[in-house]
Write the structure tokens for this entry.
Amino acid sequence: MEHDAKQPGTEHGIHLPAPTSSPFVCAFGVTLIFTGIVTIWSVSIIGFIVALAGAIRWWREGLPDNIHQLVPFQEDRVTIEPRPGAVAHLMIPGGTHRARIPVEIHPYGAGAIGGLVGGIAMAVIALIYGLIAEGSPWYTVNILAATVLPSLGQEDPAQLAQWHTWGFILGIIIHVSMSIMIGLLYGVVLPMIAKGRILFGAFFVPLLWSGLAWGSLRVVNPVLNDHVDWTWFIISQIVFGAICGFIVTRSERIGTMQNWSTLERLGIESPGVPSIGGDEE
Amino acid sequence: MTTLPQPGHADGQGAFRAPFLSRMHEWIATADHKKLGVMYVTTGLIFFLIGGLEATMMRWQLAVPGNTILSPEDFNRLFTMHGTTMVFLVGMPILLGVANYFVPLQIGARDLAFPRLNAFGFWLFLFGGLLLYFSYFGAQGLYGMGSAPDVGWFAYAPLTERTYSRGHSTDYWILGLLVSSFGSIATGINLITTILTMRCRGMTLMKMPLLVWLMLIDAILIMIAMPPLAAAQVMLLFDRLMGAHFFDPQGGGSAVLWQNLFWFFGHPEVYILILPAFAYVSEIIPVFCRKVIFGYPLMVAATVSIGFISLGVWVHHMFALGLSPMVNTIFMGSTFLIAIPTGIKMFNWVGTMFGGKIRFDTPMLFSTGFLAMFLIGGLTGVMLATVPFDWQVSDSYFVVGHFHYVLFGGLVFSIFAAIYYWFPKVTGKMLSEKLGKCQFWLLFIGFNLTFGPMHVSGMLGMPRRIYTYHADRGWELWNMLSSIGVLIQIAGVLFFAWNVFRSLRSGKDAGADPWDAWTLEWSTTSPPPEYNFEEEPVVHSRRPLWDLKHPEDPDWKYE
Amino acid sequence: MSATPTSPATTILSPPEAAPQAMDSGKCGMLCLICSEITFFGTLLAVYLFYLGKDLPGTPTPTEVLEVSAAPMKVVFNSIFLLTSSIWITLAVRALRKGAMGAFAFWWFLTILFGAEFLVGTGMEWYGMIAEQGLTIRTNLFGSGFYTVVGFHAAHVTIGLILLSLVFVLTLLGFMHKRHAEKIELLSWYWHFVDGIWIAVFTIVYIIGR
């Protein structure tokens, strides 16, 4: 009802709504009306009178036409200077300087393969540890399976060194799926690391993971915690990280679809649409 | 009403100071969106101090077991007033104030669509807040000893019925919030209208800055979610004053209905509070990373879907109520769903930072703090959305820890980021970077020390809202840590107050565009003239100032 | 991502985009107000529906009360008055657009008259219920819900009537002109909204709730 902020300007200034205390008075009256409900009824009466006075004044200012005041232009003005060449451009192979980075990533397949190979190397180390420590290759398999088979976790080392069919099946499933998933994460994360990828993949992540396992296993599964030799645990993690990271970083990089146009992503090929993986221009 | 001293206008009138009364009148009678914005934020910050003081007293009481500094009754009043204040009198005015100030500037308008209604909304909010606090003096009648509301900020029935809540304290809670929520609804409608009808030439919806987009969704949520609260409060008021039976189980009424009605408002309210936080960091992060925001269309889509989904998740506040497993499961699912758009936003902010040339000035520091803290709050939120987990920790300090990570670590950190970012525009003076960084680290450390341990004490079974506890529960260490953290936070807030005070007196001049930013508010003087822009701006892209600064490589070629 | 044709790096000109805002602020604001009012009434009506049939045994039920004192025909009669007033206000706005001030005043007055009749009808209905049937807001859930829902609607009618009367007085004093048609149309939107809400209230309270 008072949509008037869009006033045309003049040479000297601009018409803006004139200051008015009517809203203040009216709001105060409304509040008094409500205050009266919990104090004394006469407060509400006073509030009603105040609010009405405010509202009538407000109407008189707004009808038949809103009151305006002319605000003169102030003297200082802001001009925005063009600064050509003030910004250093990102150097991306292919010429364009506008792109969603990273422009190239490792294929997801490389991550999965890296995870699998790293997982095999890890398994070998675990088997060696099992043979050295308990004289049985099945020991570590059973420990791994014990994270989901509570009954297995209750058994003593001698029994853990025995062959358990379910332990073997579950251990393999857990190990393979975890290896592939962490390998995939390596594939996604490593291209985002600017410097020290080997350090990150081979040491930082394995140590972080070991620390997490060390901190949480004693709470989650205290019985199992007694069976884990942490030195060997860390060694096997580092071997996994190093091999997986190595395979991922050696894989051939491919461009992301992030910089393609929507039509390109939909796979539409026509003369009007730039070729797949084409530049923006 | 306190007012920030108006810094001198650049046209040479700065040296002249009008008499006090006429300066007061200038603020009271103003219909200028910038002055009202400043008043909103200032009022919000003052209430922030009051609410913080209430929290400090509670932490003091809880620092050691068996403490007797506060009586149980006082403690109830304190947590009720703390919650109500922080949500309705701190979060709401600050978000409305920032929107008031910067939405018109960012869309190239001269004012909101209804300037006088805007003033009306502000005064209603302020008087509503004062009415709520008047309860400390007037709740048992003007002449008796008064007391404040003590029913918790969500005021569960039937505790609020006449039988259980004697005197007028609950009525004050209802009426104070009613009055101030009328003001909020008015301003919300004003914002929607402004954004939809007053954009400058060339600013299509998809060229609006993200702050404007988020405030549009925010205002729509205010418009949809606050009237149901008003309706519920009116029904409660009828129960209390006229003997109706809406929430009175003895008369056949339903206490569960109140919970439904309250949380139908309450959960959108959480998003009403957090969307502005998203808005501020979405403006700040690109500027300090020197990159465009990553995935603008997705950010908009995520915002809209958060708005929609937030209207359909309220039952997750009531998992412990004993509703049917089917209802619980449905709302668990919808609550999980909201993590998706929120996650998209997180990744887009990180994607904006990735590969950027990051400048860790104070606004960026606070925004980064926001990202980390809000992530923790969001993750514990997903944990709490799981019904079995919620049954374990519902109404424990774990929940308190969770929502403080969201609202303090999320909202308050982003508000400080916004203040450090826009203070130069509002006052023409820079805030001190050194003091700002000290404030950030104090607040960051103090915040984590206070609210981190709450997760532990909650897991150990400490219920929220108890005024004291026995020494043999294993909660002492965690409570002590929480209370120590508060002291560090107080130091942080003092640094902030000193910083503002010093900058207003002798701060460095900011100039029009201290951060080399790209949205329209930086194309006018600091502080902006009353009419904002001499000529109505015309924009061609989401970063109009970039186009002007770099005409050889404008954005509109790529959008 | 739609790439504009390649232009030399130095061109600064932009495709001119004229985007005058299509929507009028007043209309948008009024629509928003109506939206928030709808959520308000929606809550009240949802509560009313929720409590249907949940009254304590032995207290008056909607069927008993509404059949007797508010004889159905009376309510229908009142409703027709309120709903037809929507037609008169539309005719009034149309007259104002043409500048026919006499016709405007006539239709406007008719709107007020019909609105007032509805209010009087509601008052008589309430009087019958309170005085003869002894149903008050305290009696039971039905009483609480009925008086709240119908009362809030009546309050909105009252506010509308006050605004309409103010405009009528201004018209008689000669302050109203053709150029105010936009503002007056907004007021008519509010009046239509009040009527629309009555359809919802009538359906739920007098048809479904019986």
Notes: The two ends of chain A are 48 Å apart (CA to CA). Residues 105 and 237 of chain A are 24 Å apart (CA to CA). Confidence is low (pLDDT under 50) at residues 1-7, 276-281 of chain A. Chain A has two domains: 13-72, 104-250.
